[in-house]
Amino acid sequence: xxxxxxxxxxxxxxxxxxxxxxxxxxxxxxxxxxxxxxAKPARSEAVSSLPVKYTYGNLTVIIRSYNSLLYYSGExxxxxxxxxxxxxxxxxxxxxxxxxxxxxxxxxFPFLExxxxxxxxxxxxxxxxxxxxxxxxxEDLVQKMMIKxxxxxxxxxxxxxxxxxxxxxxxxxDELKALDADELRKHFSEQDFKEYxxxxxxxxxxxxxxxxxxxxxxxxxxxxxxxxxxxxAQSRKQTKSDRLAPMNRFPRFPPALxxxxxxxxxxxxxxxxxxxxxxxxxxxxxxxxxxEPPVKLAI
Length: 299
Prior knowledge:
With about 300 residues, this protein is mostly helical. It contains 12 helices and no strands. The protein has helices spanning about 25-35, 65-70, 80-115, 120-145, 155-180, 180-185, 190-205, 215-220, 230-235, 240-245, 255-265, 270-275. The chain is globular. The termini are far apart.
């Protein structure tokens, strides 16, 4: 049987080069930060005069989240409350993947194709479809373990993740290629992204779960490459340059809701969030350090 010393985890995606203050370059930079971590946004404050990049995603779900499932699967014991919490955490991770893919296909991909051309994102949709079967197999296994914990098989659990992670990582890299800043600049204006943001948030915030979405960011976020990007930036004291910088916050919660999500609602499911790659302050746990992307001091 596998042990945590032997478990295979996945390297996070490198942060693309570029100026994160540039709305076109920030599309891919933000995408990488979300892919390595992820969660679903809520209604935003007007913190920037520039249009938002592709800032949503149940992307907390992605690489760090599945790495945490692979690692902590070797630490739980069936028949214990911790085991149930771990499986509930796994279900939440998968649920976020589905929400993300739905939002992409319903909102973001059509927006891109409106200027890039019909069918331009067809490969991304096909990748989602290729993921469906192995991901469903994993979800069925998690559900089965909830009912029959005595049938727990660590290798089977991990191998179920290994079957779809290579597909998922390639898909994430392909999405970054599709967000080439020079190509976007040819077809879109800043105003295009700004108008899209308004439409997107109006539609997607209806399904936000404040007691789960932001917490996945807290425990799987990047406070090294992305201290400007999200709950870390919103929960610390901002400098004048922070307040004036044309950047996006993820998730785009008002400070009061950030406080509520972090210090009140976090407790509701703290048994689940214990399995993240980070603690509540986005401080990375030692077992996951070697899989982090190279630090991009320029951003």
